[in-house]
Amino acid sequence: MGMLASTKKELNKRLDAFENACRASGLRVTSQRREIFKAVAASHAHPSAETVLCTVRKKMNNVSLDTVYRTLASLEKMNLLIRVGTPEKEHFDGDLRPHAHFICSQCGEVYDIFSTAELPDWKTAASACGDVTHVNVQLKGICKRCRH
Ligand SMILES: [Zn+2]
Ligand SMILES: [Zn+2]
Description:
The chain is α+β, with helices and mostly antiparallel strands. The protein has helices at about 5-25, 30-40, 50-55, 65-75, 120-125, 145, and strands spanning about 80-85, 90-95, 100-105, 110-115, 140. The chain is built from six helices and five strands; from the N terminus they run ααααββββαβα.
């Protein structure tokens, strides 16, 4: 199976998860909600709300930035995507596979870090507080492009 096929398969898996989560929380699967989710889930670039708006507007031109923000916030609450970056430059990520993010404090770019390294000590320490359901690791620094 090629790269594209597996990406398509992964996207369909995410869309299924989206529809199931909507049903479970009694939300209608409107085409608007679906397109907003898809704009994040199909992207590998951690889009901002503005970028999501541009993508969605190619298909439906009556969507406002406010609607995009509210929808993204509700999708985040449903654990269908995560918010990464800084408050000044927020990005959204539909890739829920365990990974960390490197955020450049100069250009604001968000990089995925996939590593087999685990965080067992942190998880064990956190279990004293409760059950860990999500791990969100962000590392900040200056990226290679900004470094020189
Ligand atoms: Zn940078
Ligand atoms: Zn990511």
